[in-house]
């Protein structure tokens, strides 16, 4: 007897799932003996149901799915942390397995959702919440568990990666690139979640929790976006042998979990540096496996639906075999989060300053006062007469020391011509 | 009660597994509730057992492991298709689960081994047989199954990738690079399996079988190695915007499965083109997921042991939960293999020919005779007086037509000065 599916949400990803089921239902049965049937679809939007030909099983009330005793797996694809949270928790409570693509939910209420699944003895799967179609959560929960994972670094937001790629390759300013991305449908009308790094923060919280066996929520993640990145900084970076990516970081350190999202200068020969446009990639370093990377399309109907349906088929397989959930919550440890001010890394800092004698010496004094050791400094003239660009690259320093340097330099009389550019450097 | 492991083979990978168990046994229990214990180790080499501190559980007779009723999982790491085949088949018959890294065995006797596992109701896992530590078999058997996979292309042999990288970057000839690779331990004293593409052929047979749900054996795979690649061809390729990789191909075509290993010209902006040195990567294209790539270290103690132990822990988890094998053989279809002579692709062909009038016209005539359409031809002088290099790139053509062109050009009176270089081109 077929495993019965209820789908909540018929947007881009939901539509992709319906298409996959239409095209491959017979293949799933033939190749894997997995028999799934979509029996109910919920959406606020009846037109989407008609478009996908599911009007006969359509409802606008998600409780029709939660309360349907026939349904084995609920697929939650509406996103957000309000109604979606209810759908997921109520479904689990009603004894259904849940597959979701909801990064905000898992990064915010992950512990609650995992506990609800455990209480119900049901599965919760969320491969599509990170990296679109890229298999990353499943490999980290299965293939890579013989490792102590030390680093997870990812380009996990396609919108900002597209924007940074365009800015670097075509010397376009931020505003112009954002408008273009919005016109192409790569960025939303309100781009905040993408450009301010919040989307990436949710994703790295999920990956860090799995990698380090310790719960990391979105609130633990320092997030800084790309609004202040200029084509000039990208050009200077390139001259120095680097590119700039909005990178989500999670590192195991002696002080705890270092987890953050910000523009990062990466050496051009780093494997992540070749990941351009809307593609995503997640770089994972383990003590046995060494460096690995998982690359693919991070968004869009097909890729996200591939991940959702991969989860659905796996859960269906278990249901057919009468198998209980295999992997539940793996957050068995409670490792502290390193406060951002304790971060130790290298910094690229570009100041536009008044072209006056003594400025360089005064600034050097400030760096020395805070024990921030400078690796290199390059001075170049600007178009505006009377202004020069000073680009510093530091040795490894503490975030709080660098912030103190920036604060003190801001106080230097009438020196700064604009806000400095600060980009952390990964070697 | 702990799941009991028996290890056969204490070389590089076996040693890596012993180290992982030493370092992480407690973590496996704490994070995942998986309790494993190595109870018996077989090797021809007592010194290796002493080196890894397992002399108290050491034997030189593998039947001590096969016949030990206490052992739940046999880890076969001796390689080859003779004794290893006996170890695997006898272990399954004795009711044990098997984890192996043996590509030759799986690519040659995969059907027999899968059937033996099914008969026994036991698991056979072989993630480490392809791509070292890179999770690829597990993602293809789980995360990606909602897709119809159309292409799997991989750099799956680190030795030849290292050699080609050195040849391209440092303009070194084949023999010199091979000697260096041997000195560094990247190539074996008898390099045949690597440089002739046989190792890669076994790996792509395994991946193709999974990707297309149809059995492909090593004998189905056309294999051509890198012995004839010259630094000059790598240089010309680069000028044309390509690199040369020993690529393992598996494509779903209308005529059947196109599966082969040979040096391939790849555009420099292809994601696989950035994979250098001893790294491996597998590029997978699915109808929903689009382009994905899995990157990592393809060989060595840690990476391979990461994959082996990942399999071991997964099987142990199932044993502890009383779960039967979840995925067995998925070769439900019988898709024909496209004969190599029917291959349709583009070709790079470089001839060194006598610098005589009429040669270009005669050669053009031969191409035309066999309906091989030429995209570009570049002539350049050589150091040897009286010889010119003619580099052709064809449009898409049939392999058999190109072979006919080569045969006819070989017959042109006294024209060829050396064997032509032929490299297939992937766009």
Automatic annotation (TrEMBL), chains A, B:
Cofactor: a metal cation
Entry annotated with the keyword Zinc-finger: no
Function: Catalyzes the conversion of L-aspartate-beta-semialdehyde (L-Asa) to L-homoserine (L-Hse), the third step in the biosynthesis of threonine and methionine from aspartate.
Stated family: Belongs to the homoserine dehydrogenase family.
An MF annotation (GO) of this entry: homoserine dehydrogenase activity
Alphabetical keyword list: Amino-acid biosynthesis, Methionine biosynthesis, NADP, Oxidoreductase, Threonine biosynthesis
The enzyme's E.C. designation: 1.1.1.3
PANTHER family from the UniProt entry: HOMOSERINE DEHYDROGENASE
Pathway connected to this protein: Amino-acid biosynthesis; L-threonine biosynthesis; L-threonine from L-aspartate: step 3/5; Amino-acid biosynthesis; L-methionine biosynthesis via de novo pathway; L-homoserine from L-aspartate: step 3/3
Designated name of the protein: Homoserine dehydrogenase
Reactions listed under catalytic activity: L-homoserine + NAD(+) = L-aspartate 4-semialdehyde + NADH + H(+); L-homoserine + NADP(+) = L-aspartate 4-semialdehyde + NADPH + H(+)
ACT domain boundaries: 348-427
Keyword NADP: yes
């Amino acid at each position: 007897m077929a495993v019965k599916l209820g789908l909540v949400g018929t947007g881009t990803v939901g539509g992709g799932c319906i298409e996959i089921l239409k095209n491959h239902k017979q293949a799933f049965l033939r190749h894997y003996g997995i028999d799934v049937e979509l029996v109910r679809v919920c959406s606020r939007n009846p037109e989407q149901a008609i478009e996908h030909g599911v009007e006969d099983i359509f409802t606008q009330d998600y409780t029709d799915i939660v309360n349907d005793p026939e349904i084995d797996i609920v697929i939650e694809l509406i996103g957000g942390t309000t109604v979606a949270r209810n759908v997921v928790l109520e479904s689990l409570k009603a004894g259904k397995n849940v597959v979701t693509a909801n990064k905000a939910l898992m990064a915010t209420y992950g512990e609650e959702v995992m506990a609800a699944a455990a209480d119900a003895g049901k599965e919760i799967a969320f491969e599509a919440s990170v990296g679109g179609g890229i298999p990353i959560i499943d490999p980290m929960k299965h293939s890579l568990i013989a490792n102590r994972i030390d680093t997870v670094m990812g380009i996990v937001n396609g919108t900002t990666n597209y924007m940074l790629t365009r800015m670097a390759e075509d010397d376009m300013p931020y505003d112009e690139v954002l408008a273009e991305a919005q016109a192409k449908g790569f960025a939303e009308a309100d781009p905040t979640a993408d450009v301010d790094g919040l989307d990436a923060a949710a994703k790295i919280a999920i990956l860090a929790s799995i990698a380090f066996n310790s719960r990391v929520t979105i609130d633990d993640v320092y997030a800084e976006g790309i609004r202040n990145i200029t084509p000039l900084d990208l050009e200077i970076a390139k001259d120095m042998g680097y590119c700039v990516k909005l990178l989500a970081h999670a590192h195991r350190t002696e002080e705890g979990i270092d987890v953050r999202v910000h523009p990062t200068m990466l050496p051009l020969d780093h494997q992540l540096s070749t990941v351009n446009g809307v593609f995503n990639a997640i770089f994972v370093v383990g003590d046995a496996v060494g460096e690995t990377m998982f690359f693919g399309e991070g968004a869009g109907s097909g890729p996200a639906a591939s991940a959702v349906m991969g989860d659905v088929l796996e859960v269906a397989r278990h249901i057919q075999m009468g198998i209980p959930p295999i992997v539940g919550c793996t957050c068995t440890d409670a490792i502290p989060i390193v406060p951002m001010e304790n971060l130790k890394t290298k910094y690229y800092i570009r100041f536009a300053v008044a072209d006056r004698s003594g400025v360089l010496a005064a600034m050097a004094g400030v760096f020395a006062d805070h024990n921030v050791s400078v690796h290199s400094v390059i001075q170049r003239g600007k178009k505006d007469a009377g202004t020069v660009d000073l680009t510093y690259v530091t040795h490894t320093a503490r975030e709080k020391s660098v912030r103190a340097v920036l604060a003190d330099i801001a106080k230097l009389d009438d020196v700064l011509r604009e806000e400095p550019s600060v980009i952390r450097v990964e070697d």
